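Researcher: I'd like a candidate sequence for this fold, 231 residues long. If you have to choose between options at a position, lean toward the conservative one.
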Protein backbone atom coordinates (compact mmCIF):
# COMPACT_ATOMS: atom_id res chain seq x y z
CA UNK A 1 0.00 0.00 0.00
CA UNK A 2 1.24 3.48 -0.88
CA UNK A 3 1.99 5.98 1.87
CA UNK A 4 -0.14 8.90 0.76
CA UNK A 5 -0.03 11.19 3.81
CA UNK A 6 2.48 13.63 2.39
CA UNK A 7 1.14 13.60 -1.17
CA UNK A 8 -0.87 16.59 -2.38
CA UNK A 9 -4.52 15.75 -2.88
CA UNK A 10 -4.36 17.24 -6.39
CA UNK A 11 -1.49 14.91 -7.27
CA UNK A 12 -3.39 11.92 -5.93
CA UNK A 13 -6.30 12.71 -8.26
CA UNK A 14 -3.89 13.37 -11.14
CA UNK A 15 -2.37 9.91 -10.66
CA UNK A 16 -5.77 8.20 -10.55
CA UNK A 17 -8.94 10.17 -11.21
CA UNK A 18 -11.04 7.64 -9.27
CA UNK A 19 -9.64 9.30 -6.12
CA UNK A 20 -11.85 12.29 -6.93
CA UNK A 21 -14.89 10.21 -6.00
CA UNK A 22 -13.42 9.50 -2.56
CA UNK A 23 -12.56 13.16 -1.99
CA UNK A 24 -16.03 14.25 -3.12
CA UNK A 25 -17.65 11.86 -0.63
CA UNK A 26 -15.47 13.24 2.17
CA UNK A 27 -15.92 16.90 1.21
CA UNK A 28 -12.22 17.38 0.37
CA UNK A 29 -11.40 20.08 -2.19
CA UNK A 30 -9.01 18.55 -4.73
CA UNK A 31 -9.10 21.39 -7.28
CA UNK A 32 -8.58 24.82 -5.68
CA UNK A 33 -7.36 23.04 -2.53
CA UNK A 34 -5.20 20.62 -4.45
CA UNK A 35 -1.92 21.84 -2.94
CA UNK A 36 -2.72 20.61 0.58
CA UNK A 37 -1.32 17.26 1.67
CA UNK A 38 -3.66 14.37 2.34
CA UNK A 39 -2.78 14.62 6.03
CA UNK A 40 -3.67 18.33 6.10
CA UNK A 41 -6.95 17.65 4.28
CA UNK A 42 -7.88 14.86 6.69
CA UNK A 43 -7.14 17.05 9.73
CA UNK A 44 -9.18 19.92 8.25
CA UNK A 45 -12.20 17.64 7.86
CA UNK A 46 -11.54 15.69 11.10
CA UNK A 47 -11.21 12.43 9.15
CA UNK A 48 -9.39 9.24 10.12
CA UNK A 49 -6.25 9.43 7.97
CA UNK A 50 -5.69 5.66 8.08
CA UNK A 51 -9.24 4.95 6.87
CA UNK A 52 -8.89 7.57 4.14
CA UNK A 53 -5.57 6.11 2.96
CA UNK A 54 -7.13 2.65 2.90
CA UNK A 55 -9.92 3.85 0.60
CA UNK A 56 -7.42 5.54 -1.70
CA UNK A 57 -5.31 2.39 -1.85
CA UNK A 58 -8.34 0.37 -2.95
CA UNK A 59 -9.59 2.42 -5.88
CA UNK A 60 -10.42 -0.67 -7.91
CA UNK A 61 -13.68 -0.71 -5.95
CA UNK A 62 -14.55 2.82 -7.10
CA UNK A 63 -16.53 3.46 -10.27
CA UNK A 64 -16.41 6.75 -12.14
CA UNK A 65 -17.62 8.03 -15.50
CA UNK A 66 -14.20 9.50 -16.22
CA UNK A 67 -11.39 7.07 -17.07
CA UNK A 68 -9.27 9.43 -19.19
CA UNK A 69 -5.56 9.60 -18.39
CA UNK A 70 -5.20 13.39 -18.54
CA UNK A 71 -1.72 13.54 -17.02
CA UNK A 72 -0.10 11.95 -20.09
CA UNK A 73 -1.76 14.22 -22.65
CA UNK A 74 0.24 16.75 -24.65
CA UNK A 75 -0.31 20.27 -23.32
CA UNK A 76 -1.68 21.66 -26.59
CA UNK A 77 -4.21 18.84 -26.78
CA UNK A 78 -5.20 19.37 -23.13
CA UNK A 79 -5.74 23.10 -23.78
CA UNK A 80 -8.06 22.29 -26.68
CA UNK A 81 -9.88 19.65 -24.64
CA UNK A 82 -10.55 22.10 -21.80
CA UNK A 83 -11.91 24.70 -24.23
CA UNK A 84 -14.14 22.27 -26.11
CA UNK A 85 -15.30 20.16 -23.17
CA UNK A 86 -15.71 22.85 -20.49
CA UNK A 87 -15.37 26.43 -21.71
CA UNK A 88 -18.02 26.18 -24.42
CA UNK A 89 -20.50 24.39 -22.16
CA UNK A 90 -19.95 26.90 -19.33
CA UNK A 91 -21.24 29.80 -21.42
CA UNK A 92 -24.49 27.96 -22.18
CA UNK A 93 -25.03 26.65 -18.64
CA UNK A 94 -24.33 29.99 -16.94
CA UNK A 95 -27.17 31.65 -18.85
CA UNK A 96 -29.54 28.76 -18.08
CA UNK A 97 -28.85 28.80 -14.35
CA UNK A 98 -29.13 32.58 -14.09
CA UNK A 99 -32.55 32.47 -15.78
CA UNK A 100 -33.78 29.72 -13.45
CA UNK A 101 -32.44 31.50 -10.36
CA UNK A 102 -34.18 34.74 -11.28
CA UNK A 103 -37.44 32.81 -11.69
CA UNK A 104 -37.34 31.01 -8.33
CA UNK A 105 -36.25 34.20 -6.54
CA UNK A 106 -39.44 35.86 -7.84
CA UNK A 107 -41.67 32.95 -6.82
CA UNK A 108 -40.03 31.66 -3.64
CA UNK A 109 -37.78 34.52 -2.50
CA UNK A 110 -40.14 35.84 0.17
CA UNK A 111 -40.17 32.52 2.06
CA UNK A 112 -36.59 31.58 1.15
CA UNK A 113 -34.47 34.76 1.31
CA UNK A 114 -31.28 32.72 0.81
CA UNK A 115 -32.26 32.41 -2.87
CA UNK A 116 -31.54 36.10 -3.49
CA UNK A 117 -28.10 35.69 -1.94
CA UNK A 118 -27.46 32.58 -4.03
CA UNK A 119 -28.53 34.45 -7.18
CA UNK A 120 -26.24 37.38 -6.33
CA UNK A 121 -23.30 35.05 -5.75
CA UNK A 122 -23.91 33.15 -8.97
CA UNK A 123 -24.20 36.45 -10.81
CA UNK A 124 -20.58 37.11 -9.80
CA UNK A 125 -19.56 33.77 -11.33
CA UNK A 126 -21.63 34.60 -14.41
CA UNK A 127 -19.52 37.75 -14.87
CA UNK A 128 -16.08 36.54 -13.80
CA UNK A 129 -15.86 33.04 -15.31
CA UNK A 130 -16.39 34.05 -18.97
CA UNK A 131 -13.76 36.81 -18.58
CA UNK A 132 -11.37 34.28 -17.04
CA UNK A 133 -11.97 31.80 -19.86
CA UNK A 134 -11.43 34.43 -22.55
CA UNK A 135 -8.10 35.34 -20.94
CA UNK A 136 -7.03 31.71 -21.02
CA UNK A 137 -8.15 31.25 -24.62
CA UNK A 138 -6.65 34.49 -25.97
CA UNK A 139 -3.46 34.80 -23.88
CA UNK A 140 -2.49 31.89 -21.64
CA UNK A 141 -3.24 28.87 -23.83
CA UNK A 142 -1.73 30.45 -26.99
CA UNK A 143 1.45 31.18 -24.99
CA UNK A 144 1.68 27.51 -23.98
CA UNK A 145 1.26 26.41 -27.60
CA UNK A 146 3.82 28.97 -28.78
CA UNK A 147 6.46 27.71 -26.35
CA UNK A 148 5.83 24.14 -27.52
CA UNK A 149 6.42 25.21 -31.12
CA UNK A 150 9.03 28.01 -30.92
CA UNK A 151 10.35 27.95 -27.33
CA UNK A 152 9.60 31.69 -27.29
CA UNK A 153 11.08 33.57 -24.33
CA UNK A 154 8.28 36.14 -24.56
CA UNK A 155 5.62 33.43 -24.27
CA UNK A 156 7.44 31.95 -21.29
CA UNK A 157 7.16 35.32 -19.55
CA UNK A 158 3.42 35.34 -20.29
CA UNK A 159 2.98 31.86 -18.80
CA UNK A 160 4.81 32.84 -15.61
CA UNK A 161 2.92 36.11 -15.25
CA UNK A 162 -0.51 34.63 -15.98
CA UNK A 163 -0.28 31.53 -13.79
CA UNK A 164 -0.84 33.11 -10.37
CA UNK A 165 -3.62 35.34 -11.74
CA UNK A 166 -5.45 32.32 -13.17
CA UNK A 167 -5.06 30.44 -9.87
CA UNK A 168 -6.42 33.40 -7.88
CA UNK A 169 -9.44 33.64 -10.15
CA UNK A 170 -10.10 29.92 -9.73
CA UNK A 171 -10.02 30.38 -5.97
CA UNK A 172 -12.52 33.25 -6.15
CA UNK A 173 -14.94 31.21 -8.25
CA UNK A 174 -14.46 28.07 -6.14
CA UNK A 175 -15.03 29.97 -2.89
CA UNK A 176 -18.19 31.51 -4.33
CA UNK A 177 -19.57 28.08 -5.26
CA UNK A 178 -18.73 26.85 -1.75
CA UNK A 179 -20.89 29.65 -0.30
CA UNK A 180 -23.73 28.72 -2.65
CA UNK A 181 -23.48 25.10 -1.56
CA UNK A 182 -23.76 26.10 2.11
CA UNK A 183 -26.66 28.50 1.53
CA UNK A 184 -28.56 25.86 -0.44
CA UNK A 185 -27.92 23.22 2.25
CA UNK A 186 -25.99 21.10 -0.22
CA UNK A 187 -28.59 21.72 -2.96
CA UNK A 188 -31.47 20.41 -0.86
CA UNK A 189 -34.85 21.50 -2.24
CA UNK A 190 -37.31 22.53 0.52
CA UNK A 191 -40.69 20.84 0.84
CA UNK A 192 -42.48 23.74 -0.86
CA UNK A 193 -40.02 23.82 -3.76
CA UNK A 194 -41.53 23.58 -7.26
CA UNK A 195 -40.17 21.68 -10.27
CA UNK A 196 -38.21 24.77 -11.36
CA UNK A 197 -36.63 24.93 -7.90
CA UNK A 198 -35.56 21.28 -8.26
CA UNK A 199 -34.16 21.82 -11.76
CA UNK A 200 -32.22 24.90 -10.61
CA UNK A 201 -30.54 23.11 -7.72
CA UNK A 202 -29.78 20.09 -9.91
CA UNK A 203 -28.13 22.37 -12.48
CA UNK A 204 -26.12 24.11 -9.75
CA UNK A 205 -24.89 20.78 -8.41
CA UNK A 206 -23.92 19.58 -11.89
CA UNK A 207 -22.18 22.91 -12.53
CA UNK A 208 -20.15 22.49 -9.33
CA UNK A 209 -19.16 18.93 -10.26
CA UNK A 210 -18.02 20.05 -13.73
CA UNK A 211 -16.18 23.01 -12.21
CA UNK A 212 -14.21 20.68 -9.93
CA UNK A 213 -12.97 18.63 -12.89
CA UNK A 214 -12.36 21.74 -15.00
CA UNK A 215 -10.27 23.45 -12.30
CA UNK A 216 -8.47 20.21 -11.42
CA UNK A 217 -7.31 19.80 -15.02
CA UNK A 218 -5.89 23.32 -14.98
CA UNK A 219 -4.59 23.75 -11.41
CA UNK A 220 -3.11 20.27 -10.95
CA UNK A 221 -2.08 19.23 -14.47
CA UNK A 222 -1.98 22.00 -17.09
CA UNK A 223 -0.60 24.90 -15.05
CA UNK A 224 2.24 22.98 -13.30
CA UNK A 225 3.35 21.50 -16.64
CA UNK A 226 3.14 24.91 -18.29
CA UNK A 227 5.35 26.43 -15.55
CA UNK A 228 7.89 23.66 -16.03
CA UNK A 229 7.79 24.28 -19.78
CA UNK A 230 8.43 27.98 -19.16
CA UNK A 231 11.55 27.47 -17.01
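Model: Candidate sequence:
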Amino acid sequence: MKNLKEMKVGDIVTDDYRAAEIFKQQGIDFCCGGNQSLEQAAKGKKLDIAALENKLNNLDKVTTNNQLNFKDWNLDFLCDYIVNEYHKRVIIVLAQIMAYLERIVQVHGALHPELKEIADLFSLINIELPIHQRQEESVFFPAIKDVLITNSSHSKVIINSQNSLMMDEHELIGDTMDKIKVLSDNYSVPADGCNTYQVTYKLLEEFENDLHIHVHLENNILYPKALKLAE
